[in-house]
Design goal:
The protein is mostly helical. Among the domains are: 99 residues, no CATH class; 84 residues. Helix 1 packs across helix 9 and helix 5 runs antiparallel to helix 9. The longest helix is centred in the middle third of the chain and has 37 residues. It is elongated and about 95 Å long. It starts with 11 loop residues before the first helix and ends in a 77-residue tail after the last helix.
């Protein structure tokens, strides 16, 4: 809403109750324990001072709630002398001159009379049976006494049920005169929606904004804060390939042979001292 309605004076006690609930929220209590955080009283004073600003976050729900409340109050009351639509049990049993009717009187007196009669009959019956166990009158008096006792218990049960029904019906009709049940139910639902919106969108964000940020919880499965790990530096060791060079004339540089190699010289492969025979022509042969 562009212009949310201001918080009315009659709704400020409800606002204070919601503020007390929000201050007991688990996240707020955790933030209050942080170093340098405001105290609970300081935060409450600020929230009460900025009540209109905080309530504006739930302005739509609040406008709907106040409109239904005004409609309910504007409902014309029931004329005086008119019985309610669903009167209670005592109203149904009340006589025309304002006194109690016959049924409520009987409900109260019947158990008392029945128990008195049961006590007298049982007492006389047991005394007669003690005098003569075979006396028929004694058995009849005992039977009548037990029946009277049961009737008194039943009358008391009926009276208790009547009182419970009366309390339930009178409690259901305790709303102000002229109240529309559907409108009253809608008003109750609108009030719950406004309370939820005011708490979730107004009070809690405001309280968290005035408190230090709560650090993130450690990951599950490990106590405390997890240590930071960096990837290992997998670099090659200081190693260079061996220098292989062809052996020099003196045989040095061969890593497989300890010490200097003996010097080798190329053998001199020359022809032996031989000359071809001297052949002459046949004319020279003697």
């Amino acid at each position: 809403m562009n212009n949310p309605p201001p918080l009315l004076a009659e709704d400020r006690p409800e606002y204070e109750r919601l503020l007390a609930e929000a201050l007991r929220d688990r996240t707020v209590l955790t933030a209050l324990r942080a170093p340098g955080a405001l105290t609970t009283d300081q935060l409450r004073v600020r929230a009460l001072r900025d009540a209109d600003t905080i309530a504006a976050a739930a302005g739509t729900e609040y406008a709907h709630y106040t409109r239904l409340r005004d409609d309910l109050r504007a409902t014309p009351p029931v004329p005086e002398g008119t019985e309610p639509t669903a009167p209670g049990l005592l109203t149904q049993l009340r006589s025309a001159n304002g006194g109690a009717g016959l049924f409520p009187v009987l409900t109260v007196l019947t158990p008392i009379l029945a128990w008195v009669a049961a006590l007298v009959l049982l007492l006389i019956g047991y005394l007669l049976r003690a005098a003569d166990p075979e006396l028929v009158l004694a058995r009849s008096l005992l039977t009548a006494g037990w029946i009277a006792l049961a009737a008194g218990v039943a009358a008391m049960a009926v009276g208790i049920i009547g009182l419970v029904l009366t309390a339930v019906r009178d409690g259901a009709g305790a709303a102000p005169a002229g109240t529309d049940p559907e409108l009253a139910a809608e008003l109750a639902a609108a009030r719950r929606e406004w309370r939820t919106a005011l708490r979730d969108r107004g009070l809690l964000p405001y309280l968290h904004a005035g408190l230090p940020a709560v650090p993130a919880a450690p990951a599950a499965g490990g106590p405390g804060v997890r240590p930071e790990f960096s990837s290992p530096d997998f670099t090659g060791p200081g190693y260079s390939s061996p220098s292989f060079t062809s052996p020099g004339p003196d045989g040095s540089g061969d890593p497989g042979v300890p010490g200097p190699r003996p010097a080798f010289t190329t053998p001199d492969f020359t022809g032996p001292g031989y000359s071809s025979p001297s052949f002459t022509s046949p004319d020279d042969v003697p």
